[in-house]
Write a structure and sequence with these properties.
This protein is an alpha+beta fold. It has helices at about 45-55, 55-60; strands spanning about 1-5, 10, 15-20, 25-30, 40-45. The strands form 2 sheets. It has a 3-stranded antiparallel β-sheet with strand order 4-3-5, with helices on one face.
Length: about 80
């Protein structure tokens, strides 16, 4: 079960589309569900896509913080 970023409903993984942000920063559709990268799931519905776009839920779910949020002390 995965949560759609548009409607926020839990659905079976196979009924959703996986969107992936790769290490290079590219955003692609993952039809296999196995590609490396930060992933988010969305229903195969135009309404869910519109909701996700309006609330920027898809963008926010693909954010990956690669650097620490606190400064490190260097000795």
């Amino acid at each position: 079960m995965r949560k759609c970023v548009g409607c926020q409903e839990m659905k079976e993984k196979k009924s959703l589309i996986r969107v992936v942000k790769t290490a290079e920063g590219d955003i692609i559709l993952d039809d296999t569900g196995k590609k490396n990268g930060r992933g988010a799931y969305i229903c195969k519905s135009l309404e869910c896509f519109k909701k996700a776009k309006k609330t920027k839920a898809l963008e926010l779910s693909l954010i990956h913080i690669s650097e620490p949020t606190r400064p490190r002390l260097i000795s």
